Amino acid sequence: MAPAQIFPINVGHIDDVQELNKTKISSIPQRFIRDRKERPKVSRINPFCQKTIPVIDLSRLQKGNRDDHGFQSELQQLTDSCEHWGFFQVINHGVDLGLLESIEKVAMDFFMMPLEEKQKYPMNPGTVQGYGQAFVFSEDQKLDWCNMFALGVEPHSIRNPKLWPSKPANFSETLEEYSKEIRKLCKNLLKYIAVSLNLDENVFEEMFGVAVQAARMNYYPACPRPDLVLGLSPHSDGSALTVLQQGKGSSVGLHIFKDNNWIPVQPIPNALVINIGDTIEVLTNGKYKSVEHRAVTHKEKDRLSIVTFYAPSYDVEIGPMAEMVDENNPPKYRRYNHGEYSKNYVTNKLQGKKSLEFAKIPNMQNN
């Protein structure tokens, strides 16, 4: 899949949704109005659907004896979550609740700054760091009803120091502390995901090298016509794991696509939402699947989310692990350099799970 042509999008008053929202618009600019088949029609969300994504109590895995019934029960729940949902919420995750509040505050403080201040940290074409709209490559491509601010965190070599804001004053310090705790959480989760696959618990940490970690803050202002727009286009993540923190008091905006239905994810107070990325799907040869998801908007409420992407080092070679392949389950994906995959991911627009075509073996494209 060839990369799309990179088209520069300079965030200004016309395409900055916060600025549009301030003008109390009654009609949506055409640039944001989705084609009918893409619109988040309520009819496509089954009101009688009682499905909710699974919940994992991490303390039961961390404190339990591995032969203990509680540990095995929670491990089975994790297995089912990864295999059938690709998403779960984790409680008792060990991240300080005060830190969760702090990162929300500095994120919101950033988005509430004047546009001119935020424009000091522009997202350059073909990159996903800075303030602006990511994954936009043509003049006629529809824009998401969302403002983003994204930063590379680890290793330090991926950082762009010019994009780390001086305001709010404690932004960088808070993000550093928060990212360290989320990194610990990702390592813990990957350890138990490995155990759920009957693999050595350290297999992912040893394979990933110095893992790449990035953070993105998404702000979705209220929209007068949420039925016409999308907060974030449907996609799967290119990461190994993604950790999502949904802002307190935010509208319900995250939907996952399962069994031909869009299922809204109801936030649990103080929980974090975890999803499997494309990298884990490839490594497990499709046993654990990344899942298409999207964000929608609300007519009266805004929404804040803070997302961490955790992935292997760019120089690591990725492919189905030997333990995940046998005569009955041949390789579905080729081996490739993770850095090449990441470059391909960020230079193409979000289109469901199309990013995985990069990794699929040609005769397995339809599997």
What does this protein look like?
With 367 residues, this protein is α+β, with helices and mostly antiparallel strands. It has one domain: Jelly Rolls, CATH 2.60.120.330. It contains 9 helices and 14 strands. Strand 8 (254-258) and strand 9 (261-264) form a beta hairpin. The protein starts with 16 loop residues before the first helix and ends in a 21-residue tail after the last helix. Residues 1-12 have low confidence and may be disordered.
CATH-level-4 superfamily name: B-lactam Antibiotic, Isopenicillin N Synthase, Chain
Which consecutive residue ranges, at least 5 long each, have pLDDT under 50?
1-12
Please tally the β strands and state the result. Answer: 14
The tally of domains stands at 1
Count of separate DSSP helical elements: 9
Shape: globular
The CATH architecture is Sandwich
Distance between the termini: 17 Å
Q: Write the element-wise H/E pattern from the N-terminal end onward.
A: HEHHEHHEEHHEEEEEEHEEEEH
CATH topology: Jelly Rolls
Largest sheet, order of strands side by side? 1-2-10-7-12-5-4-3
The Cα radius of gyration reads 20 Å
Text of the CATH class: Mainly Beta
Kindly report the average pLDDT value. 88
Report the β-strand fraction as a percent range: 15-25%
